[in-house]
UniProtKB/TrEMBL annotation:
GO molecular function: phosphoacetylglucosamine mutase activity
GO biological process: hemopoiesis; UDP-N-acetylglucosamine biosynthetic process
Protein name as annotated: Phosphoglucomutase 3
Amino acid sequence: MVYCRNTSGQYGKATIDGYYQKLSAAFAELTKQAPRSGDGFRSLKVDCANGIGALKLGEMERYLSQGLSLQLFNVGTEGRLNHLCGADFVKSYQKPPQGM
């Protein structure tokens, strides 16, 4: 958002809405490279590590493609931040986060 603001909007809108639009458009372009299953539906499972990302990804979901099934895990309703989940847990223990 800072770059958007500093370029007077040439890079995009310096708002949360603008950020979600830009990020979801980039994600859509990236996923065009991934193969689809037989029904043409894509599924994305996200470990939110009991952090703020769960809330923000929940807000961003409406910007994502209709052909995408989004499943959020470790969304902060239970547990502590990064406890038995998150990137460091997966790297250190070489196993999936709790609940996935």
